[in-house]
Description:
By secondary structure, the chain is mainly β. Helices cover 0% and strands 51% of the residues.
Amino acid sequence: MANNQSWEFYQQPDTGTKYPLDWVAGLSSPVSLGQDAFPANRLILIPFNQMRTATLAKIGIDLKVRGGANAKVRLGIYANNSSKDNYPKTLVVDAGELDVNNPPSTGCNFLTLNPTVDLTSNNRYWAALFSNDATYQIARLEPSTLSFWGGLAVTGSSAQAVSKVSVAKAYGALPNPAPVSGSGDLTDTGVAPAIILGFSNVI
Length: 203
């Protein structure tokens, strides 16, 4: 999609603008966000294309239902391996944990990045969500609304359209590099978490 037709081209700071906006990683269509639970001990990675240099100042989720005792969600960003071999590789930032058992409120909850993180133009990144709980619910995206490659993952004699990467792993700090292995990581089944990005500066 041409730059002037893609949502990433219109990223802007979330303060000091006529319409203060945050951005949902990888969302390609203007749709109402539903809500859903996501598995514990599973690293979920959503690709998004960074068309302009931007300073990421916060990352968060829209919490709909609180989780169980000590429920946590960890958020972060991974860099893409290369433009010729797309997969999440190097950890850019582990933003830390959100308490989704007893936060101040449901609704949008953010982790503030200190220091902030610069995302460079003309690159793919991957927003990461990792949790120790399967009962909390957050805003979610349908597979059909996610940008990916517009391609099929071919495995043996079958193929599937792909929308995200999902890897089973014991909960903890975000691993570096991402623990991906191959086509088995790719999925088009189920919904994806809406991971919200807030920028303090866009060039």
